[in-house]
Amino acid sequence: MSTIIYPSPIFGPVHSRRLGTSLGINLLPADGKVCTFDCVYCECGFNAQRRPTLPLPTRRQVCEALEARLQDMQQHGPRPDVLTFAGNGEPTAHPDFADIIDDTLQLRDRYFPEAKVSVLSNSTMIHRPDVFDALMRVDNNILKLDTVDPDFISRVDRPTGHYDVGAVISRMKEFGGHVIIQTIFLHGPGIDNTTEAYVGPWLQAVSEIGPEEVMVYTIDRETPDPTLAKATHEELDAIADRVRAMGIPCQASY
Question: Of 107, 161, 191, 224, which has the fewest Cβ atoms less than 10 A away?
Fold first, then answer.
């Protein structure tokens, strides 16, 4: 198993299939993974195999490291399209997430005001008012919804705590459209969310949420479960076309 653990608190910039030139902000330890999901497709590996020994970076460490990197990029390039909260697990689980978002927005405005601030989240913490309010302040509030089927979620996303997909969808609706839904489609033994049994109910949930955009994608890097396989271009295109037919922009990443 060859999976990725990202530096912390700042990494990149990297080229994102969906976002362009992305400077990564990793609020998790640099030597392991901390996540409220334990997805079978996670590029960072399984939680149990990536237990960190280092602490979370502090708010001050994140702010100082981000400012230093932005100053360097201002002088030497490249110019970032986006500052992206991602990395070794779930960023919204950091206890100072909301304050770090405010720091990041201030630094973005100072150095690269045209850049967007994005958060890639698995949606498990959006019930918290501070997290919800912080996500309302970022440019790209990108929330995961791989399916509406609880059995698929338990087998593929594998939440580490209580997860009620109905409650998550209801909370997503409260963003009033300020949300981008991100969904992975993939194949594996007993796993295939490209079929109508999964796609139909998922489309209904997307319609009810009313996001500003949907991102559908498939496996891009090696996964901890070697039995998984990519969804095809044709499958992703067909799903994306159905989203667009509802009047919602959708991009497919293969």
Answer: 161
* Cα distance between residue 85 and residue 81, in whole Å: 13
Give the 3-state secondary structure of residue 166: helix
Q: For residues 205 and 115, give the distance between their C-alpha atoms in angstroms, rounded to a whole number.
A: 30
Which strand (E) or helix (H) includes residue 26?
A: strand 20-26
CB 91 within 8 A of CB 31: no
What phi and psi values does residue 2 have, to the nearest 5 degrees? -115, 100
Question: Stretch 62-73: mean pLDDT, rounded?
Answer: 98
Token pair 């970032």: residue? 80
Q: How far apart are CA 64 and CA 107, in angstroms?
A: 10
Whole-prediction pTM:
0.96
CA 36 to chain centre: 12
